[in-house]
Amino acid sequence: MSQEELADRADIDRNYVGKLEREENAATVDMLEKLAVVLEIDPAEFLQRKGTPADATEPSADK
Question: What gap in Å lies between CA 63 and CA 45, rounded to an integer?
Fold first, then answer.
């Protein structure tokens, strides 16, 4: 999906989407929810580190 299409579906400015992608702006929790709905994902996925599966668990401390 293009930035323009995402912005249109989320009813936000296309330039704002670009700034989010370039990490020039930080999204509010409400904005993350709005984008997650459009992208059909769990909002928590935005908070995952790159390359980390969403269902990864922390390593056990006793190992």
Answer: 27
